[in-house]
What does this fold into?
Amino acid sequence: MDKYIVGNWKMNNDLSDIEGYVDYLNNNLENKNNVIACVPYTMIKTFADTAKSTIGTGAENCYFAEKGAYTGEISAKMLKSAGAEYVIIGHSERRQIFGETNEMISKKIAAVLQEGLKVIFCIGETLEQKDDFKAVLSKQIVEGLAEISDFSNIIVAYEPVWAIGTGKVATIDDIKAVHAYIKEELSSSFNVDLPILYGGSVKPDNSAEILALEDVGGVLVGGACLKAESFAEIAKSR
Ligand code: PGA
It folds into this structure.
């Protein structure tokens, strides 16, 4: 199976960037399987309509209720109707800046799966938690997936918080060790073997080495996905 190349635009770019971005990827990537861009809510429909079936479209978050009095929130059903196929849940920026807990994240994952969308479930330890990463990741995994019985639409993304947007990449040995640990935890707690992406300062000059690792199912890319040129280079390096 082709490894996943997932971009996370965060709160960047705008509608006027989409056509050129998609055109560039379509013209420069032979293999567009599992290449996905997760974009801000207001850009999902245009991105999905422009990319059609070539590049996957995802959202960066959603709320767990289906509808109702939740001013400013958006449901998985709404994302689906706009054309999203994937939703990132539990990104460390959601956890840290917006106070999302494992309990909320587990409800969000269940809501996304309920709509038949795929979840990109983010986990990761902070710098202070680095020595204790096993306990931190296990808790995030066990509590985050607590409500799930069908795992077929779940992709895990390991993103050490200290490596996000900092230019500090985990070493290859660190990535190997942590991915092996996550694989073991998923197997012992839920008896599943899921794709595990790595994220945190992935760039065209380090992606090939990371993507070559057996337990790495792909990459989740922030800063280096904003320009189609560097995102395409990363996708080509798998
Ligand atoms: P970065 O972000 O590639 O800019 O470090 C990754 C992410 O937060 O998903």
Q: What stands out?
A: The chain has nine helices and eight strands.
